[in-house]
Amino acid sequence: MQHKKIERLMLFAEVAKALSFTKAADKLDISRGYLSTQIKQLEKELGYSLMIRSTRSIRLTPQGERVAAGMESVAQTLVEIERSAGYENQSLEGMIRITAPMQFTQGVLLDLCQRFSAQHPGVTFDIECSYQSFNLVRDNFDFAFRATRKPPENMIAKKLFSYSHAVTGAPDYFEQYGEPSHPNQLCQHQCMNNSNDDTWPFADGEYPIQGWLKNNDNLILKTQALAGRGIIYTPEYFVSKEVRAGRLVSVLKEHIISSNDFYLIYPQVMKRSLRLSRFIEFVLDEFRLSPAPWTV
Fold first, then answer.
1. How confident is the model at residue 79, as a pLDDT?
2. What pairing do the DSSP bridges indicate for beta strands 58-60 and 51-53?
3. Residue 188 in 3-state DSSP?
4. Using an 8 Å Cβ cutoff, are 203 and 184 in contact?
5. What sign results for the dihedral spanned by CA atoms 8, 64, 41, 44?
6. Residues 252, 169: contact at Cβ < 8 Å?
7. How far apart are CA 235 and CA 108, in angstroms?
8. Which residues of 218-250 are buried (b: 16+ CB within 10 A; e: fewer)?
9. Which helix (H) or strand (E) holds 169?
10. Dist CA 223 CA 265 (whole Å)
11. Cα 232 to the center of its chain, rounded Å
12. Between vectors from CA 241 to CA 238 and to CA 247, what angle results, nearest 5°?
């Protein structure tokens, strides 16, 4: 497609300017691997090499020098077009479309988006609660929040925090039934579960559970736990506010599997609108400056 070729030419222009894939990738906020793949595809389409690569340096071929010079002219033209168009992309208005897990949305994301919208009233949010791994470009999402051990290589993935799961219950529940000191005691408690599983995973294995309620809505399970009707097993960020407020108590901490990673994921684009750029900055600052609220 012609638009992909233009994008690859612009990527090449940045590499030609920096004479470094690493520096160009950092400037463009994309992965080095993605950048290298796009330049190789461009050379294949053009039918000639644009640069000579070695382990320590890059230099342009004569054809590469001519293409780079031509792209400087294109870049100047694009700047003029943007200015004449009135800088629409610099408006802090419009919709931000996000896909995120239900528990993260309920426990963290809604508060995050509300605070951003309070600072920028012209920005609104459309949030799809799902565990499905969408193609962000094809499905027209701006961002995905995902817990994953392997972020997609064709996307930018910014690690936000590491988290564990937590077993929690209300103080009244534990006052009546006692706190379990080992996962093998869970079969003596009302373990309210959000799936058909009959066990909960811990660092040294799976342990059987039993309880009066199974439900696929974690918010309902948390509501029941707050009412003192049993205990639940959830990501710690989903119950962190209630634990800090003393409305839930976290138990079995030393037996919990830890170090899951949570990411902000978004497509690699040449130029991003101001509202999306500001939202990225806002999210990264929130988690960099206040990591403690996401743990219990």
1. 52
2. antiparallel
3. helix
4. no
5. positive
6. no
7. 11
8. beebbebbbebbbbbbbbbbbbbebbeeeebbb
9. strand 165-169
10. 30
11. 25
12. 105
**Pair of tokens at residue 140:** 């027209």
- DSSP state letters, 109-148: IHHHHHHHHHH-TTEEEEEEE--S---TTTTT-SEEEEE-
What gap in Å lies between CA 253 and CA 11, rounded to an integer?
48
CA distance 294 to 287: 9
- pLDDT (tens digit per residue) in 179-196: 999 999 999 999 999 777
Contact present, 144 and 136 (Cβ < 8 Å): yes
In what helix (H) or strand (E) does residue 73 lie, and over which residues does it extend?
Answer: helix 62-84
3-class SS of residue 54 = coil
pLDDT tens digits, one per residue of 127-154: 999 877 777 877 788 999 998 878 888 8
Residue 85 has pLDDT above 50, yes or no: no
Pairing of strands 199-202, 205-208: antiparallel
Task: Using the Cα atoms of residue 12, residue 16, residue 21 and residue 22 in order, give the sign of their dihedral.
Answer: negative
The sign of the torsion formed by the CA atoms of 246, 251, 255, 260 equals negative
